[in-house]
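Provenance and format

Records in this collection were gathered into a single text stream. Each protein contributes a sequence line and a token line. The two records reproduced below are adjacent in the stream.
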Amino acid sequence: MLLKLSSLLIIATLLSGCVLTKIVSVPMRVGGAVISIIPVVGNTAHDGIDTAADVVDDLPL
């Protein structure tokens, strides 16, 4: 019983809004970093993706 309750509390903590937004925004930021290697348009695309990741981080979850 205690093991189930503690497991439930740990899962609830991990699924809080901050963790959920990081699951989405971290791959976006990594993708933006990879795209920034492309000459000429890479930095512009990276800035756009980084801005979108910031918006995801600011979601009130």
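Adjacent record:
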Amino acid sequence: MDGVTGVAMQMLVGRDDAAPNFAMRHFVVQPGGHTPQHSHPWEHEVFVVEGQLCVECNDEQHVISAGDAIFVPSDSMHQFTNESNQPARFLCLVPLEFECGCDVPGS
């Protein structure tokens, strides 16, 4: 996807695992990396495993760190940015029907 820098994604649980409702994805955002600023018709539930991220959602900015969770509503403009000098990792859950509608190329 255009606008992605320094982000990798791994599918942890999805359609191939016979999950009936949700997909769980693992993202690594390198220092200075970010997802594109974008929106889509599905929600995200995000849990930060390691590091710190700046999340912009509907013109509001939040800094979230390891152990924090955030809800990103459907159709909201959002972006995840790592402004720190350490990689950040987060888990992202989405409805299974959108498991391939990911924020990074090749997903």
